[in-house]
Amino acid sequence: MSRVIAAPTPAHDKRTAFRAGLSSGTIQRLPGAFSPLVAMLVQRMGFDGVYVSGAALSADLGLPDIGLTTLSEVTERGGQIARVTDLPTLLDADTGFGEPMSAARTVTMLEDAGLAGMHLEDQVNPKRCGHLDGKAVVDTEEMVKRVRAAVSARRDPDFVICARTDARAIEGLDAAIDRAKAYVDAGADLIFTEALVDESEFERFRAAVSIPLLANMTEFGKSKLLSAVQLQNLGYNVVIYPVTTLRLAMFAVEQGLREIADTGTQSALLDRMQHRTELYELLGYANYNEFDSGIYNFALEQDRQ
């Protein structure tokens, strides 16, 4: 079936695909998409899934990543992105937007929006970017309540609930491992440990935790940038590149605007732009034309009155 209006793959099928990917033995590569158009390109380039970063989303709204975005804003953007791709979409749900009951509501909202999964973190509010200093984490028991609430609210058993811990930079690696084990016991399907430093820490975490693990390969942070092959060899199941596409786009936009400001024309930038025909192909203009012609294939008779 050709793509028209939305990707044809149902949300449940995307969730089962994500589940299957977690147990496939092949690392699932999820670039961040800050817009539906970027998500369509992620699919075209052959990746395994799409990631919706809270940091990228808040930046795109002109806000810092300190928990200012709302559940409705995140759900709307996540749904817009999930709608256009056949790939599973994993979304950053921060701390669940409130108390454990709010985390439960977040699950229902994201399920209805077509997401394949979400992750919750154990930071206190207001949260911080996971690779910045000055963050703090709630007690393990409080995060366990968040995870249990999220799991209990899940209606589709294939919707993936990932628990993220930011304790490595605050309490140390051993404490982060202990927290991860508690989150597994609470029902998490996937564990995301933020700001591990190097291969040895990724390896220690893999040896200690029994369920699938997610690695965050964000630029300019505390973690050494490892390749997907390296992470797969270490036993990781998912790798995200949360803000990469936004950083690439903003760098290109800044360079282009500087060129126009300096020269008064964009003529020197044409070979650095996506051509109109490439955009039309990505959007599937031909499919829309075929769809439209197939429905509106009649002509009105002349008014005889």
Overview of this structure, please?
By secondary structure, the chain is α/β, with parallel strands linked by helices. It folds into two domains: 11-245, Phosphoenolpyruvate-binding domains (TIM Barrel, Alpha-Beta Barrel), CATH 3.20.20; 251-295, no CATH class. Helices cover 46% and strands 11% of the residues. The protein has 13 helices and eight strands. The chain has helices spanning 11-22, 36-44, 54-60, 71-83, 100-112, 140-153, 168-171, 173-185, 199-208, 228-233, 244-263, 276-283, 285-295, and strands spanning 28-31, 50-52, 89-92, 117-121, 160-165, 190-193, 213-216, 238-241. The chain has an eight-stranded parallel beta sheet. It is globular.
Q: How do the strands and helices of this protein lay out in sequence?
A:
Layout: H1 11-22, E1 28-31, H2 36-44, E2 50-52, H3 54-60, H4 71-83, E3 89-92, H5 100-112, E4 117-121, H6 140-153, E5 160-165, H7 168-171, H8 173-185, E6 190-193, H9 199-208, E7 213-216, H10 228-233, E8 238-241, H11 244-263, H12 276-283, H13 285-295
Parallel strand pairs: 1-8, 2-3, 3-4, 4-5, 5-6, 6-7, 7-8
Helix pairs in contact: 2-4, 4-5, 5-6
Key descriptive features of the protein:
alpha/beta, TIM Barrel, single chain, eight-stranded parallel β-sheet, 305 residues, 2 domains
